[in-house]
Amino acid sequence: MQERLRELAVLFFRLGVTAFGGPAAHIGMMEDEVVMRRQWLSRQHFWDLVGATSLIPGPNSTEMTMHIGYERAGWRGLAVAGSLFILPAAVLTGMLAWLYMQYGALPAVAPLLVGIKPAVIGIIATAVYRLGHKAVKNWQLALIGLGVLTAVFLGVDEVVALLVGGVLGAVLLRAVISSAAMLLLPLVNVRLGGLAWQGEGGTAVSLWSLGAFFLKIGAILYGSGYVLVAYLEGGLVDQLGWLTQSQLLDAIAIGQFTPGPVLTTATFVGYLIAGVPGAIVATIGIFLPSFLFVLLLNPLIPKMRQSVWLSAFLDAVNVAAIGLMLAVLINLGRQTFTGWQGIVIAILALVASLRFKLNSAWIVLGGAVLGYLLSLVG
Hints:
By secondary structure, the chain is mainly alpha-helical. The chain has helices spanning about 1-20, 25-35, 45-55, 60-105, 110-135, 140-155, 160-175, 175-190, 205-220, 230-240, 245-255, 265-295, 300-305, 310-335, 340-355, 360-375.
């Protein structure tokens, strides 16, 4: 057990330091590490876990670290893997928040992002290929994946597209619409609700109020970590007035640049509002629900796979998640490929990942260096 905990600690601390690019990229890196390299999980079970994380609130990739930790070493593994994946990003974000408060601006990171973003696209493309090859078992599932992809581009909410894809997949594969609908109804009915708490006289913000704000977000945040942006803008800027629009945009930029979970944006926000205690409270608040949800859900996943209709539902959710990842990949490509440098780096990253199976951490670091060098030659 101790050896397994040590392995989990080393792996997820390293991923916490090097996992750039958002949830889809993080999941691609984890698939490379725990399925391809270490063979801790089968690809089928790994993708079942990915599908399961999409059905509960919280950051998907961070919850995947917890699932993997639980599979490897029980609740202790869950705590170790999840905490050490979050810790590096939280510490780095806190340090950047301190610099921001001292100097009123963010450090220049654009030269590094020139290469990191296309490298991440190569990693995501590899994950989509590997996982899609396993998940798309028949024409019905292929149809579900394409339908989810189309729905996302038509503006349908990611969570709605995922859940509807799961239900339709169960109908096509096992004709169990009534049971599936009953299972999903509580999830579909989740609403954001009132995020605002009354500030103390409109001035100081108590740690209790700050913690409650982020705890509630962590408990209801469906979809990827990028959905956090809408929640923070509506709650912190429009309703509570704890941050300015400019401060929020800077906080989001830090969350995008730093490795690990995007939700460590909460660390930055907490520091701006209430210093080091605020950073700690906000970080714990937004991630704590995920630990509890995964602890409750993980033991149920094998039973879901054993059930005929729930197995069909899982297959459909898995391929629907592939559709979501493909949508993320396409959107990132549109934003990133503004010059030949990004295209070259993405192709090299794809070859390094898919053909030579190079560790994703080295691909990200290599992309940063290559992007900086290519930017010098125009």
